[in-house]
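Researcher: Next sequence.
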Amino acid sequence: MDSIVVRGGNELNGQIPIAGAKNAALTLMPATLLSEEPLTLTNMPRLSDIGTLTQLLESLGAEITSMADGRVKAMSTHGKINHVAEYDIVRKMRASNLVLGPLLAREGQAVVSLPGGCAIGARPMDIHTNGLEAMGAEIELKDGYLHAKAPLKGLQGAVIDFPFASVGATENILMAATLAKGTTVINNAAREPEIVDLADCLRKMGAQIDGDGTSTITVQGVDRLGAATHPVVTDRIELGTFMLVPAFTGGEVECLGGRLDLIGAFVEKIQAAGLEVTETDKGLKVKRVSDRVKAVDVTTEPFPGFPTDLQAQMMAMLCIADGTSVLEEKIFENRFMHAPELVRMGADISVEGGTATVTGVQKMKGAPVMATDLRASVSLILAGLAAEGETVVNRVYHLDRGYEFVERKLSAVGADVERVKGQ
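Model: Next structure:
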């Protein structure tokens, strides 16, 4: 397996281009199953997860062409559709479950393996299936597969009350509702920018959707959806990750394509910690205002709160902050696996349940560490930028699922970072 080697101590300056959002792209791609006409997505990130979902959609009957060095995906699902999403593909990535709603809405049936992904805690499918059952679907779990059938007249509009604001369930029900008969109301809907991006794309295809970005989304079903071209929204998690770079290294970086509206709660916290954020005509520019950042407390929450996907990176920064910080993880119950690896680098962290207490140290030291999940991977690389000596981050296949060429982007602004190919 590949590893990333980081030699800390360099000040970083320059521009870092931010890719299209992984979580948006993985949501938008299954929308091709809703229409016989072409869907073209631009500003696509070039990630292993995109390749996995491409493989899954092609196995279901989609024709997908990559252009512009992978930044454009032209998709069409106009022929016969296979309604079985096999385990060998779905196991690699949780977002694979987003084919369930579109297949059920268009084909009236779907057989989808229970999904995989990062081991960061329980993410049950029952909120998805309960919503679809409210629309008339019959769903049975057999041998690790969800077997779903719509009634003879297709899915019916319904009022769906989620017990919590699930991003994946909101996306699945939103797509299914576009072709359902009548009106669907999703209460306690997730409000993430990626859901707004999906709704924008579906409207271009002819869907009738109101309320996205709020906790109540209303969808009036239509008979068919058509063709569309849609740019993927900026990746707010990659954006936040690279905005933290000056906290570790000093200097100033400009994150190209960055938008404050995507990460407002995150920006408030890093400003309180001592980073200066300035809007430019190209994105967001960030620098550290003193020699050392300050401790801040962080609680992860659904959007528009502080993103759970930036918690690991924030913890890495707080390891070298002045003072003691408390991080509360409220989204996933198993998302502090990076803490022991940071401790190997000299961090002072104690974890109790969903709370981590971090007392900043003057300096961290390079060490061999293990990437436990996608966001933990990049947090260890960030820590390595500030550490004395050499940090070797192993098992970075996680990293490639969600970040485009991290080592290239950091090297371009002055970091001593390289990828070492595995045997």
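Model: The longest strand covers residues 12-17. The radius of gyration is 22 Å.
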